[in-house]
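pls ignore typos typing on phone
PRP + seq
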Amino acid sequence: MSNFEFENLIVNIPDYPEPGVIFKDITPLLADPQGLAAAIDQISDHFMKAGITKVVGAEARGFLVGAPVAYRLGAGFVPARKPGKLPREVYSQEYALEYGTDELQVHKDSMGPDDKVLIVDDLVATGGTAVATAKLIEQTGAKIVGFSFILELCYLNPREEIAKEYPQEVYTLIDVH
Ligand SMILES: O=P(O)(O)OC[C@H]1O[C@H](OP(=O)(O)OP(=O)(O)O)[C@H](O)[C@@H]1O
Ligand SMILES: Nc1ncnc2[nH]cnc12
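k done
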């Protein structure tokens, strides 16, 4: 388990993209070789023995975390994409964001009842994206093992929101209070 100081590589942008939101910019963490490796390794190590067969990440920032975690776990990666991006038959799920609403889709044949799935993203705010992703996975019949995020905005209570519908573990590296 690493003791990496992730906090120094997250930049706070007040009132972006709208007044009242403190945007957490993770691009300095992604650009830091040690920081990126520590984040991916710490999430992967935590779930290494959980038998994960698929990692699902939501467009766009979930791809940046999800694909390398999947690679380290020896699992496949499934992108949950914004509408109109996937070319074959999809399951769809609408959801509310900290700022606005959106919809995510996965290919119907991207996973199934034999899969054990880890949901990952860079950040969890309201939990809306995570819950929508979990509902997409349920539509495929796959089993959700847990959720993992680099950063959790604890003041928006995303854990409580996820726990209303999903009792699975939520593992995060940085708690923002
Ligand atoms: O917990 P929530 O309130 O749902 O918010 C978290 C989501 O918001 C951000 O993505 P965003 O939808 O802004 O899209 P992006 O990854 O394309 O920037 C972030 O990457 C998470 O996916
Ligand atoms: N405050 C925030 N900072 C960065 N990304 C976000 N996605 C949702 N809320 C966010």
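Residues 21-24, 98, 123, 125, 153 surround adenine (ligand 2) (CB under 6 Å). DSSP finds five helices and nine strands in the chain. more later
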